[in-house]
Amino acid sequence: MRRHAFITAGTKGLGFQVSRALLYRGYSLTITYHKDMEAVEKFKQGWPNDLERIQFVQADVTKKQDLHNAIKEAYDQFGRIDILINNAGPYIFERKKLVDYEEEEWYSMMEGNLSAVFHLLRSVIPIMREQKFGRIVTYGFQEANYAPGWKYRSAYAAAKVGVVSLMKTVSIEEAENGITINMVNPGNILGEMKEASIEQAREKQMEGNTPIGRSATGEDIARTILFLCEDNSDMITGSVVDVTGAVDVINRERK
Hints:
255 residues, alpha/beta, globular
């Protein structure tokens, strides 16, 4: 039996390394993308002999029907969904305070980062219950487990802290069904390092990016997610894992 994984926004950025890791581990894979067909084609070129176990589905994570349709397409083609990686989530890079947000921006942050998790869980959990197995991973930010204030990131932070409580609640509700759910908090992973390997980061020797002396990478996140998705990782559920290299992302913004 080949396990099937579903990942949102898995063709580029952090999701690129996670998708690659899952494929190398032997999973079949459904990958959603928003609009970037160039990234989809580039991804296909890297796996020319494995396209029968890779499905690409267009979906906007702020739209619940897109998410429901994507889950249905994955199940219709592969007959199971063992792993859900909620990799996608809108982010506003402009530094601005809460009162300067437009309502549209606020709701985009809530729908894409919190409501999207709800819609995906509602679609996937019944499938996982039938299988008596499931591994779900969401993303957060440094110290999200403790609901810290994050200057200039109020909407994003509020949504992700909401996901923490949602994730922990579902971990209790679904434990009896063989389903685990955890959160991974990436550190300060910028630009090309999102798709980079650990070896590439060490070669660049980007001192100062983290206290350990190299940049965090997409591979760091992928390795953590793979561990959480193993069959024998069933004792780890409702946990929040910071993968930051001890960098203090939040306090940089407070200055």
